[in-house]
Design a protein that fits this description.
alpha/beta, 20 helices, dip2346 fold like, seven-stranded parallel beta sheet, Cytidine Deaminase, domain 2
């Protein structure tokens, strides 16, 4: 049984209370709240803070839906370069559409989408047209003239004044995006400029999750944040501004510390008065650290996340997605917490079983094995065969185990395998006959109509959510996404099962 170390209900209560305090502070008419990190499906937070609700932020906003509206930012370069959100395998422009759908489901008002640092490009214009034809207001913001040093130009009609004003009606404007570098801060400051030009007193704050400012600099949870952003070169640091102003230690990260003096000067120029914030930590609304209930549990979970990130980084390097520098940084963070790959409990059983099969028979020279850690802690393995891939075999074996079905008993009839393989080979002309995980799950669901054992096994699939898995070879994109959709946290060894450059 996994330990819980975080109080999700307390977090929603505390965070919403402090946001409301920011909204109602002084004579301010509106708060522009920059949302850092993932607003929905924050699986990183869920992994390092066991007990954290991955949708806590959206639930928090839902509580304040009468006061809030949402502005979504996306950097035009991310559209042009087809930047991908790795956990869902979709591009940032599609992530914007997905976010809009999610916000609507929670009855949150979508104000608009802002394309930041706009570049004239067919891909960008196509994206804008797609939104506008679905009646979603879209704005183009350009590179800010004079940024970051020439504050006089930045805070002028040539700088922020060149951007169109986004009409906002509610007291809380949530500014979010599909990922880092979306232009959220620039959009907030641009709005501050336009609001003050119209005689309205508004404020800016930042919704923060990581790093956690009131945890030690080298706490594993904060190190795990560095591991998650190794490719961005984010480094946690002591907030020197906070220390100087209050004599209190607080943790922030390099980008916020670097930009703070500029942001402070810009805000002072816009408002015509001394900035209310003396440090980047002051700008943040972050009550996460106050909701940790078991420090040992979150430390353990954070170390596991650092290991997970390193293993993923090795695969990403193999795929050409990250630089050698980013990989080396991930490895250094592993050493910082004195962790090994084998400390992820599913790694060794998968590797050992694969090695055992290879020793037994030469026909298993290319065998791939996946190990799954069951809800009760037991490890179940599955290997690749002519019938199915390793991921499919492992999931089948896991649900049979949970259902108490004998290992030798069929839950999918041999003729079903044969018919699907014939379809793949002779009709769809696939090179690989072995069934992927999605195909096996479909076959299991169909078999459940006539086979009681298959029905029992299918009913166990939901219990695999939250389980960890490891595969001895890089998974196909389809298998990886299917496992993620099931809620299974999977890592892989950086080895390809085939010499083909493309496999799906």
């Amino acid at each position: 049984m996994h330990k819980t170390g975080f109080d999700a209900e307390k977090y929603i209560e505390e965070q919403s209370k402090y946001i409301l305090e920011r909204i109602n502070h002084g004579d301010s008419e509106r708060l522009y709240l920059e949302f850092g990190g993932k607003l929905v499906h924050d699986k990183h937070a869920m992994r390092v803070l066991p007990g954290f609700d991955e949708n806590a932020k959206i639930k928090l906003l839902e509580k304040m839906k009468d006061k809030a509206e949402i502005i979504i930012c996306i950097y035009s370069g991310d559209i042009i370069n087809s930047k991908t959100r790795q956990d869902f395998g979709i591009t940032y422009d599609l992530e914007v559409l997905r976010l809009i759908d999610i916000f609507r489901k929670h009855n949150l008002k979508i104000n608009s989408v802002v394309v930041t640092r706009y570049e004239d490009s067919p891909a960008v214009d196509k994206f804008i047209n797609r939104l506008e034809r679905r009646d979603i207001r879209t704005y183009k913001h350009y590179y800010t003239k004079g940024y970051p040093t020439d504050v006089e130009t930045i805070v002028s009609e040539e700088g922020y004044g060149a951007n169109p004003y986004i009409e906002v009606t509610k007291p809380l404007a949530v500014v979010t995006g599909p990922g880092g570098g979306s232009g959220k801060l620039a959009t907030c400051l641009s709005q501050l400029y336009h609001e003050y030009k119209r005689g309205r007193r508004v404020r800016y704050a930042k919704f923060e999750t990581f790093p956690i400012w009131n945890l030690p600099l080298k706490h594993p949870v904060n190190i795990a944040y560095e591991a998650a952003t190794a490719d961005l070169k984010d480094v946690n640091m002591i907030d020197s501004f906070h220390l100087e102003a209050y004599g209190t230690m607080a943790v922030n990260y390099n980008r916020d510390l670097e930009v703070f003096p500029v942001v402070k000067r810009i805000i002072e120029k816009i408002t015509g008065q001394e900035a209310e914030y003396k440090s980047p930590t002051d700008m943040g609304v972050n009550r996460v650290g106050f909701c940790i209930t078991d420090d040992e549990a979150v430390r353990e979970a954070a170390v596991q996340e650092i290991i997970r990130r390193f293993i993923i980084a090795k695969c990403d390097y193999k795929k050409g997605r990250i630089s050698e520098e980013a990989l080396e940084r991930s490895e250094l963070l592993m050493k910082e917490v004195n962790a090994r790959e084998e400390d992820r409990l599913v790694v060794t059983p998968a590797r050992e079983y694969a090695e055992y099969k290879r020793r037994c028979d030469k026909k298993f020279v290319n065998v791939v094995v996946m190990a799954i850690e069951m809800p009760g802690g037991e490890i179940v393995t599955g290997r690749s065969s002519r019938r199915m891939v390793a991921a499919a075999a492992a999931v089948l074996n896991a649900v049979k185990k949970l259902a108490g079905i004998d290992d030798e008993k069929y839950v999918i009839a041999p003729n079903v395998f044969r018919d699907i393989q014939d379809l793949k080979e002779n009709v769809l002309h696939h090179d690989r006959k072995s069934l992927n995980l999605e195909e096996i799950l479909t076959a299991l669901s169909i078999s459940a109509e006539t086979n009681p054992c298959a029905q029992q096994a299918a009913q166990m699939l939901g219990r695999l959510a939250g389980c960890k898995a490891h595969c001895t070879a890089i998974l196909s994109e389809r298998d990886e996404q299917t496992l993620r959709s099931m809620g299974i946290d999977v890592t892989c060894d950086p080895e390809y099962v085939t010499t083909n450059l493309y496999f799906s």
